[in-house]
Amino acid sequence: MPLLKNGQMIGEDAWLSVADDAPLPEHRPALISHARWQAEQEHLAGRNAPLGIRLPHTVDVLDFGPEAGRFDLIVLEFPKFSDGRAYSQARLLRERFGFAGELRATGHVLQDQLWHMQRCGFDAFEIAREGAAEAFAAAMRGFSHVYQPTGDGRISALKQRLAAARKQEAAE
Fold first, then answer.
1. Which of 4, 52, 127, 147 is most buried by its number of CB atoms within 10 A?
2. Dist CA 97 CA 66 (whole Å)
3. Are residues 121 and 152 in the same domain?
4. Do 91 and 53 share a domain, yes or no?
5. Pairwise CA distance, residues 162 & 108, whole Å
6. When comparing pLDDT for 128 and 83, which is higher?
7. Parallel, antiparallel or unpaired: strands 16-17 and 8-10
8. 125 and 79, same structural domain?
9. Segment among 50-54, 78-82, 132-136 with least mean pLDDT
10. Which residues contact 111 (CB under 8 A, 6 or more apart)?
């Protein structure tokens, strides 16, 4: 499945998705399920290689959030178009719990939603439709200014205008 990360197509995903009953690779980044994490948490906490987790859209991030820093990658699911819980999960992970690793959207990821997903904190997207990845990458570059403040670090147009006005006042 094509992967779009930070607006760029990634040739090969470094993360190996591991089934719950399969052994983890020793030195390769491994992506596990939330169920496996709950069952093997003590054992997995001591792992030296990067560890990622797939969180179902039903997981309460307020309960999971304090553990987020243990992971280098968190994958959030969009099971269908009308289910936006992953937007809230992403914002909570970034803004309340300070998650700084890769935050990836998977499932029903649509081109016209990428901008909003990015504003909520997603920086990587699994693109299910073959041949659509280039159009998705172009869509990520479609906007240069933002109006609402969020946890993605972009400065809103209002704050940019206020800073420019202060700079001009100081120069006068």
1. 4
2. 7
3. no
4. yes
5. 38
6. 83
7. unpaired
8. yes
9. 132-136
10. 132, 135, 136, 139
